[in-house]
Amino acid sequence: MSNEEQLVTITSQDGVGVPCKKEAALLAGVVKNMIEEEDEDETNITEDLKLLKVTGETLKKVVEFLEHHVDEPMETLSETPLQMTKLGECVGPEWYVKFADIDREEMFLLVKAANYMDVPPLLDLMCLAITMTIMDKSPEEVRGIFSKVNPSLAAPPQAAEADVEAAA
Amino acid sequence: MSIEALPQGVLSTILSFLEKPKDVADCALVSKQFYDASSSDIVWKAMAQSIYGDELANETLNKYDGNWKAMVVDDNRLGACPTLFNIKTSAWKHNGIATHLNNSSHYYCTIPCIKWDRKNRIVRVYIDARGEMDLRAPVRSGIRLRSDDGCSQKDTSGQRFVSELKEETTGHYKGFICYLESDIDPSFHDVSNNTKGKCTFCYANLMQRSWADYEPVELFSFQPNTSMKDVFSNKNGKITYTSYKSPFTDETEEEKRWRFLKPSVRNRKRPSAWWV
């Protein structure tokens, strides 16, 4: 059986099993490790891929991304930092721009999942999407966006303020 | 879930996509976590490499003891010069006509680039001047800042000429002429207060009067209220940086610079003086 037709099921923290092409699942470092370990034991690889830190909803999005990435890879960024202010100008193809058009809460969950599951392209895409939301914003506005900041932690050292101003 | 729940490495990655140092600075003021994330090398390395180019940034990192942030905060004064590339020629005029037009006599000064050396607060005008044996020395080459309305102007002579030739040859000068930064900065002289203007260079002539016997060439033009930074920025506000190294290492560039001469002149053999 070729890899493309093989399916694996990844199970989320809350017990939701999401089927995924094996080839796509291998893009996620954490799944790849699990599969490779199991291969050594010669057990059935379609079982027991449980991710303890990812919820079912997020996992579905991640799998959607992985499977699409297999068919149509995301174009990597040529240059950082960005010269552009729209996601569409620095990420292609179009599918990924639509994929990233989600609310901020979901973005954070996906970033966290991508970081945990070790999926660099997804991590890049989500980080970029978040970067777009804080670009050209004042500290107060950014604080507003991420409004759960504890005010007592919000005051930065004075020296830092001075040298970052010099940089600007 | 808030952004605080993200691992710090991820937050640094997010900030590393920001283009302007100012944006990163703003984010550093958001919270302690943002401040810590913004101090990460990932952020400043990406910033430095995008401003100065990967190669120049990596090469000059040792001047800042491996500290990327220090490099950006200092705008890499120690390792990077804002540079304007000007492949232009100040040619000797014979009876008022530039010699490359009639090829009667042969004295030319090509200018591959000018570099702003912020460490020493000077501007280096790189020249490659070639001619017959009596080619005059470059140090007295004049620079003129002049507003377009003609109301104000300032003439300046070179301070020093630094040769980059391995041995002295008659009829050939190659190296850079140093001008004080303050002599070239349009905002320093009220030249650019309300009007735009030009900065021109004339080989071996202190003043660019009508009797100057070399063709003046434009080094740059400037808009009202221009700072030195603006002078070295392109239309998109981006500055091209190069290292402090000599620009005279690329032979194909060199050939390109002299291509305007007819082959009969370029390849002319002259005892001891004519070179190309």
Automatic annotation (TrEMBL), chain A:
Stretches assigned to the SKP1 component dimerisation domain: 121-147
Presence of the UniProt keyword S-adenosyl-L-methionine in the record: no
Pathway: Protein modification; protein ubiquitination
InterPro entries, per the entry: SKP1, SKP1-like, SKP1-like_dim_sf, SKP1/BTB/POZ_sf, Skp1_comp_dimer, Skp1_comp_POZ
Organism per entry: Chaetoceros tenuissimus
Domain SKP1 component POZ: 7-70
Coiled-coil regions listed in the entry: none
Family: Belongs to the SKP1 family.
Any Pfam family hit: Skp1
Domain of life: Eukaryota
Gene Ontology terms: biological process: ubiquitin-dependent protein catabolic process
Name under which the protein is recorded: S-phase kinase-associated protein 1
Keywords attached to this entry: Ubl conjugation pathway
UniProtKB/TrEMBL annotation, chain B:
Pfam families hit by this protein: F-box-like
Domain F-box: 1-47
SUPFAM superfamilies xref list: F-box domain
Protein name listed in UniProt: F-box domain-containing protein
